[in-house]
Amino acid sequence: MTTSVLLSAALAAVLLAVVHVVTPTLRFLDGSPRSVWLSAAGGVAVAYVFVHFLPELAGGEASVGRMAGDTFGGFSERHVYLIALAGLMACYGLDRLAKVGRSRRAGIPVTDSVGASVDVGTGAGVFWIHMGSFRLYNGLVGYLLLHREATGPASLAFFTVAMALHFVVTDYGLNEDHKAAYRRIGRWVLVVAVLAGFAVGAATLVSDAAIAALTAFLGGVILNVLKDEVPSERQSRFWAFVLGAAGYSALLLTL
Fold it and tell me: How far apart are the first and last CA of the chain?
């Protein structure tokens, strides 16, 4: 690993850490209908998954298949996609846990938790479960700054921009769910996690199969931004989502 690669990845890690610090202070993201910037950022993240991550999964299928062997039969033919599905379901489950926790603390029916305006945060238990999970997730992002299926300065730049905008969307949701606890403690946990993930990546090297599996899980988690755009209650900006997705797809096709 060259010094220039290491320095570029370190700069990217710092940029991602800064996103966690500043996003909760960006008041222009608040309000209804949903901010144009959040919808566009969600479109960019989803475009990155479909145009870049999914082809990488197809490319890494063989290496993960060799790692899995023939033990699981047909499972070994589709395991990277199952890993991506697991990432999606895990992140959705955590988000649902936070929404239900807020609803119960506010004394409103759980079934109304998506559309209702809830001014309270989650309890301490849900907060730390959420932070523990996102700490691992951020560590994975930091690690993949140095170890991805596709390498090179352009790949790093596209990955960093997509993750930065993805973090804006997820940070906004975490700030909504956990309120002051996220601004006081949570965002700093995630800052440390992404920098620690980068540090681990600089010190270690794993197999191509492991990188493919990690990439698959990350892709599934990023697809979770769709839950923030699809429900009509959020009054999402469809045109901004489409422009973000289309514009970033066009850029990715130049790789």
Answer: 21
